[in-house]
Design brief:
By secondary structure, the chain is an alpha/beta fold. It folds into 3 domains: 1-95 and 243-276, ATPase, nucleotide binding domain (Nucleotidyltransferase, domain 5), CATH 3.30.420.40; 97-241, ATPase, nucleotide binding domain (Nucleotidyltransferase, domain 5, 2-Layer Sandwich), CATH 3.30.420.40; 279-334, no CATH class. The protein has 10 helices and 13 strands. The strands form 3 sheets. A 5-stranded mixed sheet has the order 3-2-1-4-5. Strands 8-7-6-9-10 form a 5-stranded mixed sheet, sandwiched between helices. Strands 11-12-13 form a 3-stranded antiparallel sheet. The radius of gyration is 22 Å and the shape is globular. The two termini are 22 Å apart. The relative contact order is 0.16.
Length: 334
Amino acid sequence: MKDVYIGIDVGSVSTNIIVIDDDINVLYETYERNNGQPLNSVKSGLKALSEKMSDGFNVRGVGTTGSGRQLIGAMVGADVVKNEITAHATATIHFVPDVRTIFEIGGQDSKIIIVKDQVVVDFAMNTVCAAGTGSFLDHQSERLKVPIEKFGEMALTAERKVRIAGRCTVFAESDMIAKQQFGFSKAEIINGLCEALVRNYINNLGRGKRLEPPFVFQGGVAANVGIRAAFEKEIGHKIIIPEHFGVMGAIGAAILAKEYVQQTGEPTNFKGFDVADLEFTPTSFECNGCSNACEVIKVEVGGKIIAALGDRCGKWANACTSNIKNAHHKAAAK
């Protein structure tokens, strides 16, 4: 039986689930839009994954990352739950060992990671401004009636340069409309938008940082050739696009899960693909244990609490994790 490891990256827009083997070859990959329901997207992704995988695979470890990593980690029985910076850097360092600068742009946020000697030494994230994210490009593609898949290719056909104000989504859209009224073509405006997004990204996230090659660009937006070209123009250097650029976070989570179970020798906490058929019920309450008055999110299945999130001191989360591990070890011992 072939040992495999699952990585799940749950973001605000989509969920990526991948499977790697011991040699970190990507065997399976699924992509699901969240549509505001990350639990459902993970369940759908696991169902699709279970249909693709044959009986000859043994899941030895599971890792989760992304904004929904805690909840989904509890849902599937993750062995490691890691932040996006760690997950993305882990995957990139594996595929590009000498990487120094990582550019990552997703649907709702973006990040820059500085690496030295395969160690993260600095990073920055943007989670508040949509002007530097994929969702902004999606919105403009709809407004301009240009499929997002053709967005980048059209940008490269621009005959004239036009500068679009990119520091804010509101100003950018207003400026785009104004440029259209002046007679600039869609291709020229899209090219200007790509350059504005990259300019905003470098000025905000790269400020005060020493950006050195090799440069790696990943995240869903890396599929946009217009953004790629804008990056190379802005930094004056070629950038590397990994083969699996859209799922690097999930790959990193899987690699970290693989390292963890191999180092500890512990059996995986993975609850199996049957979790996709369970009904998860989230509720919340205010903890009165101290002056913090934390809002604690409980997740229940069949009346049993499987996860508790949101408490700053870890009182509820740790108690829940301890109960789950005890139950897991008892079941493994039988």
